[in-house]
Amino acid sequence: MSTETLKQFHRLPQSTYIDALRFLPPLSAFDRYVVIASFNSDTDETSIGIHALNPTDAPTLTLQSSFPTSSRISSLKVAQKSLQNPLIAASTFAGSLHILFPNPIDASFESEVSIPEKTLHIGPISCVDLQENGSACVSVGEDGRVNLISVSDSGLDYRRVFDSKGLVSYTAARWASPTEFATGGLGNSLQWWDQRRPGGPVSQFKGNWAEGASSGVVHSIDIHPSRKHTCLAGGSYGSVFAWDLRRQQQPIILSGIGTNDTASNICISSSDVWEVQYDTFMSSSNRATANISSDRVLPVMMCSEDGILAVVKQGEEPTEILAENCAINSFDIDPQNPSDVICSLEWESVAILTRA
Fold first, then answer.
1. CB-based contact 173:221 (threshold 8 Å)
2. Exposed e or buried b for every residue in 45-84, given b needs 16+ CB within 10 A?
């Protein structure tokens, strides 16, 4: 296993547990902000905060504004509605959905629209995802419901796309285009949905391809904007795999479990992979990423329950970035500066790192 060189690494202790974090799309050319969903175990208070990131040799996170929620955050996403007008989507374990609009002048929460508990789902909302322009949101839950929510400053409208009545449970979702999105769930399963073809998923992938996969769970999905035919997934047993819609029978195993025909010896982690993202960082050693054949999966970053943050490339040894003594629950790659990564550590801290 190779190790990637870090230019800078800082661990910032926090007073609360970090449930999720995201880089906020830029409000100005000079400021950088991070959205953090936190939980105070002493008071049971939960909140979403916008923090100013001061990227000096000793970086700091300074709280600019905070929005309290009635329940812990189950999913956190951001999008760029328009120039200097990002928005934040947050779902809760109680089943509510909140859309927050930051003020571009002072990073305060200018307004908020929400859908109350027990409206979209029975029980927790497992995952939400915003379209790139923030005009629509998809929500999924273990109750088997899939909802589409239209977003505007004045309010939210939703419609139920599908309801399995609990026969299928969904745990992850990701937009692929203005009309298509993917979901993932129990059994390491994936589904592809097209709003132009209503009634249910247009393609399905069942996780019966490996020992233990039928009991696994997909925790995270990502889809590259230039290769929407390939759905990336991370889940139980250290599994990181891709589902190519052009060849749907077998997954492309990047790490973890696999069949005798598809498995490699690559296994960066044996625990749950909490999040996966395509790695947009182009170092001097992989400038040719843009020329990678469409038959190969682009480099992937993942984080795991056993404290691993790593980059995984198809058919190559993983590149370990961090190995912590606690779980790395979530991470985000700065779209404006892909060498910069933030992570939430289980031991109430945020890690900020810059790759060389």
1. yes
2. ebbbbbbbbeeeeebebeebbebebebbbbbbbbbbbeee
> Residue 206, CB half-sphere, CA atoms under 13 Å: how many?
3
Give pLDDT tens digits along the chain (356 positions).
556 778 889 999 999 999 999 999 988 878 899 999 999 999 999 999 999 998 777 889 999 999 999 999 999 999 988 767 899 999 999 999 999 999 988 899 988 999 999 999 999 999 999 999 999 999 999 999 999 999 987 789 999 999 999 889 999 999 999 999 999 999 889 999 999 999 999 999 987 656 555 678 999 999 998 889 899 999 999 999 999 988 766 889 999 865 444 445 577 888 999 999 999 885 434 544 555 666 789 999 999 999 999 999 998 888 999 999 999 999 999 998 999 999 999 999 999 999 98
CB 52 within 8 A of CB 62: yes
Q: Which of 21, 7, 17, 70 is nearest to 349 (CA)?
A: 17
CA separation for the pair 345, 327 (Å, rounded): 6
Q: How far apart are CA 295 and CA 309, in angstroms?
A: 25
Question: Tokens representing 225?
Answer: 């904007």
DSSP β-bridge partners for residue 62: 52
Reduced to 3 states, what is the DSSP secondary structure of residue 187?
coil
Phi, psi of 264 (to 5 degrees): -110, 180
pTM of the predicted model as reported, rounded to 2 decimal places: 0.91
For residue 135, the cross-strand partners are: none
Give the separation between CA 161 and CA 220, rounded to whole angstroms.
Answer: 21
Picking from 43, 340, 323, the residue whose alpha carbon sits closest to that of residue 331 is 340
- What type of residue is 21? L
